[in-house]
Design a protein that fits this description.
2 copies of one chain form a homodimer. Chain A is about 35% helix and about 40% strand. Chain A is α+β, with helices and mostly antiparallel strands.
Chain lengths: ~100, ~100
């Protein structure tokens, strides 16, 4: 993992009544970002099993520039506008890799 | 992501005075788990940039059996015993995928 990569952990809570709609918009946004943006390396979104309105997203971008560009894409803006009234709490944490490994 | 996969988010705090030693043991454990265990699919450990003693680990196992086997491996037991007195807080959360995508 290069030192110039940008990593973020998003910690969200979503209105339970709108959770299905939120997850659909998030899934669409992640699919588009990975498919269309060379600088978006991974987006892993999970929900707490016992309280599925609590979401964590581990985000990895190639660079600061890639991250800034991502924020201006139509698919991200659609997600952001579409979910604005579904998200009841949002904490964005800048993180750094300790060790990140996946099966090839 | 198959429904039978087991996913977990570990949220830890580590004694800041022992952080380097903790990260070395964690990195060694992750490297060994991915290299040696077919059922350990990914282990992504990150630290908060502004408070690096706060650690998050997103763990993905092939199955419940793979997860249980992992807990008995020499490298996991070495990590667990070696870090027992370094970890000041540990929360293990069962999570489910919402959408997980990485560049090929």
């Amino acid at each position: 993992m290069s030192g110039k990569h940008v990593l973020r952990m998003a910690e969200l809570e979503v209105d339970p009544a709108q959770l299905d709609a939120y997850c659909a918009l998030l899934a669409e946004e992640i699919e588009a970002s990975i498919s269309l943006e060379a600088g978006v390396l991974s987006l892993n979104a999970v929900a707490f099993k016992d309280s599925p309105h609590r979401i964590r997203i581990l985000e990895v971008y190639e660079s600061r520039e890639a991250y800034e560009a991502h924020l201006q894409t139509p698919h991200f803006l659609k997600y952001k506008d579409g979910t604005m009234n579904m998200v009841t709490s949002l904490t964005l944490v800048d993180v750094e890799p300790v060790m990140m490994r996946s099966k090839p």
